[in-house]
Amino acid sequence: MSPLSSLPVAMAATLRREVLVASRRGSEWANPLLFFVMVCSLFPLGLGPDPRQLANLAPGILWVVALLAAMMATEGLFRSDFEDGTLEHMLLSPLPLYGHVLAKTLAHWLLSGVPLSILSPLLAVLLQLPPTGMPALMVSLMLGSAVLSFIGAIAAALTVGLRRGGLLMSLIVLPLYIPVLIFGSSAVQSAVEGVAVLPQLAMLGVFLLLAVAFAPLAIAGGLRISCDQ
Q1: Which of 7, 113, 148, 185 could disulfide-link to 59, CB 3.0 to 4.6 Å?
Q2: Containing domain of residue 189, as a range?
Q3: Residue 225 near residue 163, CB atoms below 8 Å
Q4: How far separated are the first and last CA of the chain, in Å rounded?
Q5: pLDDT along the chain (229 residues), means of 10
Q6: Is 93 left (phi over 0), alpha (psi -120 to 50) or beta?
Q7: 2 belongs to a structural domain
């Protein structure tokens, strides 16, 4: 069997392995969700109970906190593999590294971004977001969190060999997160105001397609650089 023909099998095996490992390390994917819930719950206490004020700020609050939660979840994406030698094995494998990192990033999104998107309507109710903004919130977070996972994985690959790479990772990803934040929060705000949200969602979809196509190449390059140091 050629490496290319066995690539889907290897990707499926990597995806299954990541889900099983994450199920045994519940804190790694549960902590970002708890952070998302706790921080969003604090805003009504700090801003006051005025429903109109909370509703105006809700799209930005939800997206900013979701962005920070995604960054928290991505920091250790490749660290355990780096420490136990799995990453070196992947680099020496005859199969393209593109498939491995794509499967790992998709698993990360399934365990962090998807639950965050599903949980968001409950916190949106707490922040007095009108019901008209709920579908746009969930769809924009589904698309946007996937883009954030790919961008964060690039920074995680570049800093995996550093003991304290959290600050450097933040400096790398935050400028790249800003377009996703702008279009994501704008989609929710437009839905609340009754304006068409398809342009913003389409841009998030474009970002996701570009991330799926090119981010694994950058991630693979970053891992090789980190392991060669």
Answers
A1: 185
A2: 7-228
A3: no
A4: 33
A5: 59 76 70 90 84 88 92 78 74 76 87 90 92 94 94 87 70 89 95 92 96 90 77
A6: beta
A7: no
